[in-house]
Amino acid sequence: MKVYYDSSYSHGDIVWTNGCYDVLHLGHVRLFQHCRKLATDRKYSFFVGIDSDRRVKEMKGASRPVNNEEDRAEFLLSMKGVDRVYIYDTADELEQLMSVLRPMIMVIGDDYKNKPVVGSAHIKTIEFFPKIEGYSTSNIVMKGYRENIQD
After folding, report:
1. Does residue 6 contact residue 80 with C-beta atoms inside 8 Å?
2. What are 22-44's pLDDT values in tens digits?
3. What's residue 8's pLDDT?
4. Of the candidates 44, 41, 55, the residue with the CA atom closest to the CA atom of residue 17
5. Which residues form the domain of 113?
6. Burial, 5: exposed, middle or buried (Cβ in 10 Å; 0-12, 13-18, 19+)?
7. Which of 4, 112, 136, 138 has the largest CB neighbor count within 10 A?
8. Rounded to two decimals, what is the model's pTM?
9. Total domain count for the chain?
């Protein structure tokens, strides 16, 4: 597991979100804004977990990720309010990370309602964030692929 962090990080309670965050889009930005507000209002830290390149390829296919894990971590850490970025390689590693960090709040996409959420046993509150209609990394990647074929 790799950890990227802002040197201004101070210990305290945590708001957590995780995902691939391969190609950032408006849905991700709004999710991060929401998490940052939750963290700021409560004087918590805001941590983001990202899937490793190997894990993204396993879940999304051979053409992914578009951006490698180090770049994705740097992109996220450059966003206002993100205190730390973790890169995990397996669901077990994410579960272990949650057991150590024990976030007070996890914010995850509402497409995970009624599905198992890795690490949920170690989190006080899980909040489901509504997907922003029309925004999906997979759709963005496919659109770019189709446009390149037409050129």
Report:
1. no
2. 988 889 999 999 999 999 999 99
3. 52
4. 44
5. 2-150
6. middle
7. 4
8. 0.83
9. 1
